[in-house]
Amino acid sequence: MKHCIKELRSAFGWTQEQFSKSIGVSRQTVISIENGKYNPSLELAFRISKVFGKTIEEVFIFEEGRGE
User: Fold this and answer.
1) pTM: predicted TM-score of the whole model, two decimal places
2) C-alpha closest to that of 8 among 51, 68, 42
């Protein structure tokens, strides 16, 4: 699943550590999400979207038929 988390985080001027604390996960989890190695749960996706003041659809791009 594609997303714009890294771009949004940078636009807010947050480090990975600051962002991870704001959403309640480890920095390693943020790294894995940003690198596409981990897709967040629905609950975490909602937290991420809320922190940025965006809808889930504005943060995450669902690509149908890609098996992701």
Assistant:
1) 0.86
2) 51
